[in-house]
Amino acid sequence: MPDANQGRTPRRGGVAPVIIAAAINGGRDRRDHPDIPYTPEEVAAAAIGCIDAGATIVHLHARGRYGAWSASPAWYSHAIRRIRHYRPGVLISLTSIRPETIPVDVILGLITTLANSDSTRPDLMSVNLGHVMLWEHVAPGDAAAGRPIPRPVRGIGLHRRTVHYPNSYSDIVALLDACRAHRIVPELGIMDLGFVSNAVTLHEDGLIGDEPWCLIELDSPRYGAGVQVAPSSTEDYDVITNRLTRYLPGARWAAHGSARPGFSVIERALTTGAHVRVGFEDSVVAPDGRRATDNAELVAWAAGRVRESGRTIATADEAYAVVATGIPA
């Protein structure tokens, strides 16, 4: 198995501490779990619970009315300030994902606005290294909510719509440039072998350094789920991280999966010296299959697995020492 730390992570007692990231509220709504946090106050409260349970990075998505996608600077400013007021020192990560109708300039403007003040500048921002496509089931009630309903497939009543989250080469370059300008760590989202190839291309083009900070994001619960990225399996984790280490030996990463199968990916990541991510964005169920109470429960599970593995949980300073090498030079 590849070693995700390559001997450069700060060590306590000869053991590399583990970063636990908590992805609190992206990609899901209250049909998935009634307690998905939407407002800045709800997200900050969830973040505080996760930090107290062991998270050193909290990953946020702004949400609009009824949980819609948002890139509101006011929303992010309120949430970030509130988290830092109650838990100073924690690392805060934001998403750069956007619907296909939203130009990348909206995200670039968000970065500039937040970076104008140290009180709101994020520490990290996730940047998917390519387009993400989903063949998403049309849920009951979507028509009433004004969402487009595609025609049945082959007359058998199965409805799916294609959902596209774009990130072209020029989009990614612009996001990396903004991160460099404002000293924000880009979290390079790697979801399949093609994304590994994109990371190598960006490295050869001089756009990322020798020691990038990555997210291994196995964001499909299974083959056939309609999500056009690698599924949550230890086999897919092993293949992707093997290729990443072969071509970018300085890379370090946190890994996560989707739904209940994702917990096996997290456990495999811990055995390979990697870091981990949990939270409602990735799964609203606990490892035993029941609905999780909250994000903090999932973080507490991860913290327990870290301790059982004989490793320790990274402090915020230790975590930053790991991820900061990912800021493009």
Q: How many H/I helices?
A: 9
Please count the beta strands (DSSP E, at least 2 residues each): 10
Gross morphology is globular
Q: Could you say how many structural domains there are in total?
A: 2
What is the CATH architecture descriptor of the largest domain? Alpha-Beta Barrel
What letter string, H or E per element, gives the SSE order? EHEHEHEEEHEHEHEHEHH
Helix content range: 25-40%
Q: Beta-sheet strand percentage?
A: 15-25%
Indicate the structural class.
Answer: alpha/beta
Overall mean pLDDT: 92
Oligomer state equals: single chain
Output the strand order for the largest sheet.
Answer: 1-2-3-4-7-8-9-10
Note the topology.
Layout: E1 20-23, H1 40-53, E2 57-60, H2 73-86, E3 91-95, H3 104-115, E4 124-128, E5 132-137, E6 160-165, H4 169-182, E7 185-190, H5 193-204, E8 213-217, H6 234-247, E9 252-256, H7 262-271, E10 275-278, H8 295-308, H9 316-323
Parallel strand pairs: 1-2, 1-10, 2-3, 3-4, 4-7, 7-8, 8-9, 9-10
Antiparallel strand pairs: 5-6
Helix pairs in contact: 1-2, 1-8, 3-4, 5-6
